[in-house]
Amino acid sequence: MMIDTWLLAVFFLALLTLGALIRVIRIKSRFDRLVAAIVAISLAALTGLLLSIALGTFLVLNITILLVLVCFAGLVAKIHFSKGDPA
Questions:
Q1: Measured between alpha carbons, how far is residue 26 from residues 32, 36, 47, 51, 65 in Å?
Q2: Residue 87 resides in a domain
Q3: What is the count of structural domains for the chain?
Q4: Minimal CA–CA distance to 45: which of 64, 70, 62?
Q5: What is the average per-residue pLDDT within 66-80?
Q6: Taking the CA atoms of the chain, what radius of gyration do you get in angstroms?
Q7: Does residue 50 sit within a domain?
């Protein structure tokens, strides 16, 4: 049995995304947390794109695009409306 290259790439990108999400939780600085969240969202978008290629369906890609747009909008809203110390 041969492992599909696209699915293997999806697996490792999902692990990288999980690591970036853990980094978002552990960082104290708001600006470092913002950068880590952008990296996590970007890695998740790439994971969704590769999963869409691996499965050969546009449904996964459409869901990925929708989730990425919602995550970026939520991130911008959180930064815009957050109060307190920037560090």
A1: 10, 10, 23, 28, 27
A2: no
A3: 1
A4: 64
A5: 93
A6: 15
A7: yes
Summarize the confidence of residues 18-28 as an average pLDDT.
92
Identify whether the C-beta of residue 6 lies closer than 8 Å to the C-beta of residue 50: yes
In a domain, 27, yes or no: yes
CB burial string 52-85: b at 16+ within 10 A, e below: bebeeeeebbeebeeebeebeeebeeeeeeeeee
- In whole angstroms, what separates CA 49 from the centre of its chain? 11
Range of the domain at 55: 5-79
| pTM reported for the whole predicted model | 0.85
pLDDT tens digit sequence for 32-72: 999 999 999 999 999 999 999 999 999 999 999 999 999 99
